[in-house]
Design goal:
Helix content of chain B: over 70%
Largest sheet of chain A: none
Distance between the termini of chain B: 60 Å
Number of domains of chain B: 1
Number of strands of chain A: 0
Strand content of chain A: under 5%
CATH architecture of chain A: Orthogonal Bundle
Largest sheet of chain B: none
CATH architecture of chain B: Orthogonal Bundle
Helix content of chain A: over 70%
Oligomer: heterodimer
Order of helices and strands of chain A: HHHHHHHH
Structural class of chain B: mainly alpha
CATH topology of chain B: MetI-like fold
Number of helices of chain A: 8
Order of helices and strands of chain B: HHHHHHHH
Structural class of chain A: mainly alpha
CATH class of chain B: Mainly Alpha
Largest interface: A-B, 38 and 37 residues
CATH class of chain A: Mainly Alpha
Strand content of chain B: under 5%
Number of strands of chain B: 0
CATH topology of chain A: MetI-like fold
Number of helices of chain B: 8
Distance between the termini of chain A: 63 Å
CATH superfamily of chain B: MetI-like
């Protein structure tokens, strides 16, 4: 007796799918906003700050990049309460995603900063701009324009990796799939549909961010 | 209740790390073989083959690895194959690794000068002979650093096998946490062990890259 695929059994759960997708995108949006902001600060420090601050950031980047995201998340959610920091599952997920994304984005933004020609800084200095203004107005826009595609890729990767937040019971897209397949016993169909949803979200997110980037950073790449 | 000393935790975690290593090694071997086969199609002159491989890469790089694991774990039984967590993890990690390795290696093949293709063709070599005897040996030199770098990603990815119930490092940590209620120490140790596995690879990739740039 062969197995008959049955996708009709999923139709009644469309609203759940949408809620899960909204949670996944929401987590990604918050983590991306915080992660990019922190990574700009981190990269600025890493490429010009005090020696001990540079070493601290390098250690952070290496630690995060050489450990799995799921372990980082378990550490935040299950481990930190021992230190008195008790977070909800959603907050722990966003924190872990931000910590993870920041480490990768620091490396990306730093590469972008290093690719800005020195002459740009010298010219700005000759105009009498302060170091802060030089960074904010001259270096940073060019640096971000240089590495924007890499940042977009990293944000998409963060969204795809966020599938594991279902493991600490955040009701994201994957958690919705776990719930549905536990009710209708159609695990393969459910995960197949969810996988397609992730694929569509990844493609749309990439397009959307690419379009925003063209608006914001047009013609600035060094 | 059994009392766990710190050494007991470390010992159990290190024993479990063997499975993480084994899973990584098998996934790398499987991914390497798959990646090489896909590479032959990806750089061939057949447009349909190239597009098919591109689609494969798009699918595996554009969806969560966790979903790929679930689809193999729940999908293979529908084809009548008995699936253990071990089999599902090795199969899906191999497929995942091959999608990344083929892209890495394609870049290396394409940076071999086109004249090498022309010259070997003029010696009467067919496509596979060109690849095997002329192109790949030259591409290999370029391929080593990024491949070692990808190994880091692969070792970290094996942690997801814990979710389908395969007892590698991360799953063992969950079991130990449930038995001892010491998540802080256990997950810190687990992170350290992963770091000890991955950092040498990261450093090696960086060193090899620098050497290649200097050569």
């Amino acid at each position: 007796m062969g197995y008959e695929l049955d996708f009709a059994a999923l139709l009644q759960y469309v609203s759940l799918f949408l809620e899960g997708a909204a949670v996944t995108l929401g987590l990604t949006a918050v983590a991306a906003a915080c992660g990019i902001a922190l990574s700009i600060a981190g990269a600025a420090t890493a490429s010009g700050g005090l020696a001990w601050a540079r070493r601290l950031i390098a250690a952070y980047v290496e630690l995060i990049r050489n450990t799995p995201f799921i372990v980082q998340m378990f550490f935040v959610y299950f481990g930190l309460p021992s230190l008195g920091l008790r977070l909800s599952a959603g907050a722990a997920a966003v924190l872990a995603m931000t910590i993870n994304l920041t480490a990768y984005a620091i490396e990306i933004v730093r590469a972008g900063i290093e690719a800005v020609p020195l002459g740009q800084r010298e010219a700005a200095l000759a105009f009498g701009l302060s170091p802060t203004l030089i960074f904010a107005l001259i270096v940073l826009p060019q640096a971000l324009a240089n590495v924007y595609p890499a940042l977009v890729s990293q944000i998409v990767i963060t969204m795809l990796e966020s599938a594991v937040v279902s493991q600490i019971a955040v009701v994201d897209l994957t958690h919705v799939a776990d719930f549905i397949q536990s009710r209708n016993f159609r695990a393969f169909e459910t995960y197949l549909v969810i996988t397609v949803v992730y694929l569509v979200l990844a493609v749309l997110l990439r397009r959307l961010l690419a379009r925003c980037g063209r608006r914001l950073l047009a013609g600035r790449a060094a | 209740m059994i009392e766990f000393t710190l050494w007991d935790l470390v010992r159990n975690l290190l024993l479990a790390a063997r499975w993480t290593l084994l899973l990584s090694a098998i996934a790398f071997a499987g991914g390497g073989i798959g990646g090489l086969a896909l590479l032959v199609l990806r750089v061939s002159r057949n447009a349909a083959a190239r597009e098919a491989v591109k689609l494969y890469i798009e699918l595996f790089q554009g969806t969560p690895l966790l979903m790929q694991l679930f689809l193999v774990f729940f999908g293979l039984p529908l084809l009548g194959v008995e699936v253990s967590p071990w089999l599902a993890a090795t199969v899906s990690l191999s497929l995942y690794a091959s999608a990344y390795l083929v892209e890495i290696w394609r870049g290396c093949v394409e940076s071999v000068p086109l004249g090498q293709w022309d010259a070997s063709a003029s010696l009467g070599m067919r496509y596979l002979a060109q690849l095997r005897l002329v192109i790949l040996p030259q591409a290999l030199r370029l391929a080593v650093p990024p491949t070692v770098g990808f190994l880091v990603q692969l070792v970290k990815s094996t942690a997801l096998a814990s979710i389908i119930g395969y007892s590698e490092l991360t799953k063992t940590a969950q079991i130990l946490t449930n038995a001892t209620f010491r998540p802080f120490v256990i997950y810190a140790l687990v992170a350290l062990i992963y770091f000890a596995l991955c950092y040498p690879l990261t450093a090696a990739a960086r060193l090899l890259e620098r050497r290649l740039a200097a050569a």
